[in-house]
Amino acid sequence: MMKKIIVPTDFSEQAQSALDLASEIAVSTGAKIVLMHVIEYAKKQTVFLGSSSLNTMGTLSTGVEMDDIYFIQLFKRRKEQFAQILQDPKYANVDITDKILLGTPYHAISEEITESEADLIIMGTTGVNDWEESLIGSTAEKIVRHANCPVLTLRRKVKLEDIEKIVFASDFKELNPSYLKIVKGIQKLFNAELHMVYVNTPGNFKNEREIIGNLTQFAKENNLDNHKIHVYCHQHEEEGIVWFTEDFKMDMVMMATHGRTGIIRMFEHSIAEDVVNFSKKPVVTINLSNVTA
Q: Model's pTM, two decimal places?
């Protein structure tokens, strides 16, 4: 059951698209939204500023040295931006709590995920268009790598009704029931057709008949409904997933990541992060190391 959705925002167009999708999901499921912004501060300590953190002297009452007028003015500006967003009539039927935090974005978002027991994170991301580029170390990648709940990233505006076909990319080995429950939940949330795809690479090449047989058995054993099976050949898994999504006109990608633990060998964490970077379609990642059997 979807109860809490976190939407980090930097007030960009991509972040606005994330909030719009989150609001649609919230209306559909009854979930509450935490809309959060992080004012970057060098220390890892996260401080909740909130709406009452300005004292009568015009300084921030956080216990942190904040006498720099820049932070005070920035805080006021962010509160104004939040107020403008929340006054929009399209969010009238959505329970949205706004939060301003002081700290580093990754640590602040991670702490909020744990504190609010989030069921889903929706993040806007700019992505990249050239495989020679890289966003390694970005906040979005770190959240994708370590979050203990599903993370949905998107590069452009998308509506709930737009998601009709979801790519489920995997090697379909050692996926525990809890993980598959999340997969089924995401499929149900969007009422979408699930397209199971195995990317067949030269370094790990398998006979197509064998792959189809294994995936058919997997789908049967795990009671997957409304699904299709595909084998897609490419030199690299990550590029293969992105190309399959484009070639077969998919609407969303869903796959696993392991963080840095490497507990279950399905995809290296970099593959999921690369797909998040390069896919023009929304991507849902689920951290297997945080999903218990």
A: 0.86
